[in-house]
From TrEMBL:
Domain Pyridine nucleotide-disulphide oxidoreductase dimerisation: 356-462
EC number in record: 1.-.-.-
SUPFAM superfamilies in alphabetical order: FAD/NAD(P)-binding domain, FAD/NAD-linked reductases, dimerisation (C-terminal) domain
UniProt keyword NAD present: yes
Keywords: FAD, Flavoprotein, NAD, Oxidoreductase
Organism in which the protein naturally occurs: Microbacterium arthrosphaerae
Keyword Flavoprotein part of the UniProt annotation: yes
Molecular function per GO: oxidoreductase activity
Family to which this protein belongs: Belongs to the class-I pyridine nucleotide-disulfide oxidoreductase family.
Protein name stated in the entry: NAD(P)/FAD-dependent oxidoreductase
Residues in FAD/NAD(P)-binding domain copies: 6-317
Source taxonomy: Bacteria, Bacillati, Actinomycetota, Actinomycetes, Micrococcales
One Pfam family in the UniProt entry: Pyr_redox_dim
Amino acid sequence: MSRREYDLVVIGAGPVGENVADRATQGGLRVAIVESELVGGECSYWACMPSKALLRSAGALRAARDVDGARQAVTGTVDVAATLRRRDAVVHEWNDSSQVEWLQGAGIDLVRGHGRLTGEREVTVDGADGEATVLVARHAVAVCTGTAALLPDIPGLRDAQPWTSRDATGVREVPASLAILGGGVVGSEMATLFTGFGVEVTVIARSGLLGGVEPFAGEAVAKALTDAGARVRSGVEVERVERRSDQVVLTLSDGSEVSAAEVLVATGRVPRTGDIGLETIGREPGGWLDVDDTLRVRGTDWLYAVGDVNHRALLTHQGKYQARAAGDVIAARARGGEVDDAPWGRHVATADHAVVPQVVFTDPEVAAVGHTAKSAQAAGMGIRVLDYDLSWLAGASTYADHYRGQARAIVDDERGVLVGATFVGPDVAEMLHAATVAIVGEVPLHRLRHAVPSYPTLSEVWLRWQEEYGA
């Protein structure tokens, strides 16, 4: 058993762990990062990158078919095999050598194996060769292990060998039919993906699709899926699951059955903290880690939890945002520097509280940031809701022949500032950052009226919101 000493030990080399390690290294610390799978983590190989690569082919085809002149050039359907090859290229055939080279170039030591806390500021790594390495952290340990798919306790489900999101994005042979449990982001995106592949898709979503955003967003996605041939079953639950020969049969709470070649579970996420040694420091294994705004686990002065594991915002970009703050504050504390932990300071993750942008790459796309009307009212705000049909914009008529979309702004009427925005429609993801900047900056609407949108673009919705608000 070897023993090494570092200033910081990071458990988990996904995007979050990489960014914590990089910022701390830039701050002058000696850092080791521990990874049991692939450097680059879930996002690079099983989530964000492969899913968006797979979704793009059918999305481009839909876009071409909605423009006269381009429509005539489209003579076939999605080439599934070519799409899968493109996915393989995006994930580098699940080879992390380029990410490892980046770590080496950044001066970060990589330790391969499963890391567990074995004491205060101590991580023991069990390598694939059976050898153990003890890493002692002089200043801090950062847990960046992310989340895994939640498998609900439904009779027969585990025995039916269900897919998780990893199986869906890593698919090699596309099934003839697919049942999807859950109507959140993963369920909605995978329904869009496999429907685009020509698969017979059934989504079972008790409360409908995309319940965390404005209701019109989920309704638009459900309509598009239905129009494309998928079935969306809401108001029902799965009571039991049984694999019969080459079919999985799901019995629903209304007594009906759904049969499919495969079943994908997309009902939520759980923290990957069950086997990282939390019990050795008096913590409950398998739970979320509660942190302060500097991402330090409450009740400790050396343990940090960054990204999904702290349950603040289960999104890669928000995890990387947290990671930059965490890496900087770990370095500052280690070197005796000043800590800027005031709201919106350099060393805090303030934006995780209310300014979390998210894009759902469905058909149509959904892009949202900040409050919905419901959440703003629940927070006690006096608001105005500004709705606009994006198809009325000149930019929409040039973009597509049958553009359908909607945009909603939520304004805190007392302060006259934007606190939430939702866009639904083709390629609305690129409109989201302007709204994020406006919310974070708390720019008054009477000032935003001087930010003139280009013509003819969809960004003219900002002008229409201004007109409706009377700014």
